[in-house]
Design goal:
313 residues, Rossmann fold, N-(1-d-carboxylethyl)-l-norvaline Dehydrogenase, domain 2, 2 domains, six-stranded parallel sheet, three-stranded mixed sheet, 12% strand, globular
Length: 313
């Protein structure tokens, strides 16, 4: 099936949480006709002011050209696709289903098979970013599935962010995203360790991270996390339990593929301990609090204005 993406492309969106709403808003602001389903209808209704329509059941989106889904877990994806009144339970489905949830490869493969039964093409398209990154236009996507289908909708995917990478057939994008998130956790734990070391030796966190960010080791990510580490503002972008889930998925894949991951394995235990210590609802940058506690250091906000790098300054 060939999808000709244009201004008249009719889009469905499943999942209007913080990320889903931010991404659907980009499509609405680009002028697309978007209908939205969310299990809690009130969350979907916040998009009406941007021009969205709201439906009560996922199956009501089955006549759309392209449907995106972004839900929390594998079970949720299976529920909204093949569960009661699911998207793929009608006689025919949408032209293409693009799933941007972080789910297991097994769940993704099941949805791909269910989609094929109703003539729907399927792309796995997990994303890297959070609502603020979406707003800055810096979201990236890894996409896998049939290459011709990707080519058909690549321009539409490009509306969502700055980088859309085709990574291969089948469910490869799921592994790519899990690898990304495992690295995210390892890097953040390492960043917490060295920042605590520098502070315990007499440097302020702001000064140390300014030096790091201006060196060859600095990155867009380290700069983005600097305000949280300096001022201890842990408003959630990605929580510790979600990070623990991705470590579980990554280490399971490593065992299956016989790829040793000693550093990731150690970090997974640290993340699990942080969750056990009660770090559940805030941003995973709270890893620095646990690191400081183990080092006998009590952190306080430094109350320094720090640029997160998202505004191009």
């Amino acid at each position: 099936m060939t999808i000709n993406v244009g201004d008249d492309t009719r889009i469905g969106w499943i999942g209007a949480g913080r990320m889903g709403a931010a991404l659907a808003t980009r499509l609405l602001e680009a002028g697309f006709d978007v209908a939205v389903y969310n299990r809690t209808r009130a969350k979907a209704e916040t998009l009406v002011e941007h021009g969205a329509t709201v439906v009560d059941r996922p199956v009501e989106l089955a006549d759309r050209d392209v449907v995106f889904s972004m839900v929390s877990a594998s079970a949720d994806l299976l529920a909204v696709t093949s569960g009661e009144d699911g998207l793929l339970t009608a006689d025919t489905g949408p032209g293409v289903l693009v799933d941007s949830s972080t789910v297991s490869a097994e769940a993704s493969a099941q949805v791909r098979a269910d989609a094929a039964k109703v003539g729907t093409e399927f792309l796995a398209a997990p994303v890297s970013g959070n609502p603020k990154v979406v707003g800055a236009g810096k979201l990236t996507l890894a996409v896998s599935g049939p290459r011709p289908v990707f080519d058909d909708v690549a321009s539409l995917l490009g509306v969502l962010g700055r980088g859309v990478t085709y990574v291969g057939e089948g469910e490869v994008a799921r592994l790519v995203k899990i690898c990304h998130n495992v690295f995210l956790g390892v890097v953040t734990q390492s960043l917490a360790e060295i920042t605590v070391l520098a502070e315990k030796g007499g440097a302020s966190r702001a000064a140390f991270l300014e030096f790091l960010n201006n060196s060859v080791l600095g990155s867009e990510f380290s700069r983005y996390k600097t305000p949280a580490l300096v001022n201890l503002d842990f408003a959630p972008t990605f929580t510790m339990p979600l990070l623990r889930k991705d470590f579980d998925l990554g280490l399971a894949a490593a065992r299956e593929l016989e790829a040793p991951m000693p550093v990731a394995s150690t970090t997974a235990q640290i993340v699990a301990a942080a969750v056990g210590a009660g770090h559940r609802d805030n941003d995973f940058a709270e890893l620095i609090l646990e690191q400081a506690r183990r080092a006998g250091l009590e952190l306080r906000p430094e109350n320094v204005e720090v640029d997160d790098g998202l505004n191009g300054r």
